[in-house]
Amino acid sequence: MVSLKAFVEILRKLLDEGVKFTIIGDTVILLNIKSEDLGEDIDLFVESPSILENENFYEELSNKNKWSYGKTWLGTPRITAVIFNEEINLDLYENLYDFYIPNSFINNAQRIDINGLRLKTISIEQYLVLKSYSGKEEDIEKLKDILNIIKKNKIRIHEDKIVEAAKEVGEENTILRKLKELGYLR
Predict the structure, then answer these.
(1) Same structural domain, 150 and 164
(2) Are residues 101 and 53 in the same domain?
(3) Order of strands, edge to edge, in the sheet holding 20-23?
(4) Where are the alpha helices (DSSP H) in 17-122?
(5) Residue 44 burial by CB count (10 A; 0-12/13-18/19+): exposed, middle or buried?
(6) Residues 129 and 160: beta-carbon distance below 8 Å
(7) Which domain holds residue 13?
């Protein structure tokens, strides 16, 4: 579990080091429902410095802060830090191979304020589209769980934003069909 306090602290450290990023993973949902438990890891789309061109930067950043440095399932950097006695995994991504996030999602990311820290995050609708687009069985199961979370917390999602995001990703018909089957669309 990552607490809100530890989440803010680790992301503040990244920002202080000049890392520019957008939150893209499950944390998007957890922040929107105002959960104090922000999950097991934090997925970030790194804008700069590039994780592909400047991987040494992230290794040095990890060493300097006595954090562990490893790799995600995609071979991109994973930083494991202990903040306030909590282990936090930061999974860092860029568009690589089959991992794709449209530039428009990043360029137009919403800005949120979490305890005085200004952060960029994709929208819930964009997150849902990305999960549907991946098509992995575990992502479809996650979408089922998230629908329950959204219903319980009375979070409103906008169908028009889902359709727009699906168009930007591509394979619009497949994405929208999956989301309709799961109950996200009428």
Answers:
(1) yes
(2) yes
(3) 68-71, 77-83, 86-93, 41-48, 20-23, 117-121, 110-114
(4) 27-32, 55-64, 103-107
(5) buried
(6) no
(7) 4-122
User: Distance (Å, rounded) from C-alpha 21 to C-alpha 128?
Assistant: 19
What does the DSSP assignment read for 145-183? HHHHHHHHTT----HHHHHHHHHHHS-HHHHHHHHHHHT
pLDDT at 186: 81
pTM beyond 0.85: yes
Alpha helices in 75-136 (DSSP H): 103-107, 124-134
Helix and strand element counts for the chain (H, E): 8, 7
For residue range 34-85, list pLDDT tens digits in order.
Answer: 888 888 899 999 999 999 999 999 999 999 999 999 999 899 999 999 999 9
Is-contact 94 51, C-beta < 8 A? yes
Same domain, 117 and 160: no
Same domain, residue pair 111 and 50: yes
Domains held by the chain: number: 2
- Given pLDDT bands bounded at 50, 70 and 90, which one contains residue 178? very high
Rounded Cα–Cα distance for residues 31 and 11 (Å):
14
Pair 114, 168 in one domain: no
The per-residue pLDDT for range 92-127, each reduced to its tens digit, is 999 988 789 999 999 999 999 998 999 999 999 999
